[in-house]
């Protein structure tokens, strides 16, 4: 029961990284259900890592709003120490880059540093913000809230370049957070990138307009997988006769089916 409880009440931790001015706080506010990050249009306002706890009923998760990199060499060195300390507890790192700029040197350096520190490449999700400002910026379709054909070509070029600079098993995704463009696709990608025990808890905090049937099904499926893995770990702690193991396997499948059926009530 303790193992099952730990899965159902798992509290995910997601890190939000990127240089100041990339729109980290704006993106967080657009994705999740409550206003959680202070935004500021001018200078970087996140000088230290802020733990932002989101709570809906008994369900909690934490966003670690990380300080912007690339401001000064002195700050970058301080941030490296901070990132090294936080790395082990992050389920996912969402790394935000501006789609309308090419200066990624500081991000590349920091990314390589984290990989050298043992960070799992599959835990990095790279997002291109300010998609509405790519060339030609004046062609953004305000009515449909989507890029023009020429902007789509520009975004495809930028996306391919970033994917080359920051190798990852996950695709690079452009978004325009203020108007909500491509946010459901980002949420779906997040849910697929998270470890199984974290998907459902994170999904429960997502704004309704950013949810999708595909993302929900994946969250339910991985929840069942996490329950099964936890059950197996609990059984493995003891030595049971063959007949008992057979009964436990049947009970395992029934428990997983029941909890997945109750997923909507649990999350």
Automatic annotation (TrEMBL):
GO terms for molecular function: GTP binding. GO terms for biological process: tRNA methylation; tRNA wobble uridine modification. Residues 14-116 form the G domain. One of its GO terms (cellular component) is cytosol. Gene3D superfamilies: P-loop containing nucleotide triphosphate hydrolases (3.40.50.300). Pfam families: MMR_HSR1. InterPro entries: GTP-bd (IPR006073), P-loop_NTPase (IPR027417). PANTHER family: TRNA MODIFICATION GTPASE GTPBP3, TRNA MODIFICATION GTPASE GTPBP3, MITOCHONDRIAL. This is 50S ribosome-binding GTPase. It comes from Escherichia marmotae. The lineage of its organism: Bacteria, Pseudomonadati, Pseudomonadota, Gammaproteobacteria, Enterobacterales.
């Amino acid at each position: 029961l303790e193992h099952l409880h730990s899965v159902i009440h798992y509290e995910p931790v997601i890190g939000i990284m990127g240089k100041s001015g990339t729109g980290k706080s704006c993106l967080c506010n657009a994705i999740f259900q409550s206003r959680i990050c202070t935004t500021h249009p001018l200078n970087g306002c996140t000088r230290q890592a802020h733990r932002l706890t989101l709570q809906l009923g008994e369900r909690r998760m934490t966003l670690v709003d990380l300080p912007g990199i690339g401001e000064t060499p002195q700050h970058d060195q301080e941030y490296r120490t901070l990132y090294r300390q936080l790395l082990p507890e992050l389920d996912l790192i969402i790394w935000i880059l501006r789609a309308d700029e090419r200066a990624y040197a500081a991000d590349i350096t920091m990314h390589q540093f984290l990989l050298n520190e043992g960070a799992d490449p599959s835990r990095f999700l790279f997002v291109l913000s300010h998609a509405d400002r790519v060339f030609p910026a004046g062609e953004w379709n305000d009515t449909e809230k989507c890029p023009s054909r020429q902007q789509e070509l520009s975004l495809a070029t930028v996306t391919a370049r970033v994917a080359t600079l920051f190798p990852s098993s996950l695709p690079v995704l452009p978004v325009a957070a203020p108007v909500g463009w491509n946010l459901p696709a980002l949420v779906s990608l997040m849910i697929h990138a998270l470890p199984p025990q974290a998907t459902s808890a994170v999904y429960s905090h997502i704004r309704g307009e950013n949810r999708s049937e595909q993302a929900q099904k994946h969250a339910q499926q991985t929840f069942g997988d996490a329950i099964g893995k936890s059950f197996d770990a609990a059984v493995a702690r003891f030595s049971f006769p063959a007949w008992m193991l057979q009964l436990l396997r049947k009970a395992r499948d029934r428990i997983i089916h029941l909890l997945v059926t109750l997923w909507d009530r649990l999350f």
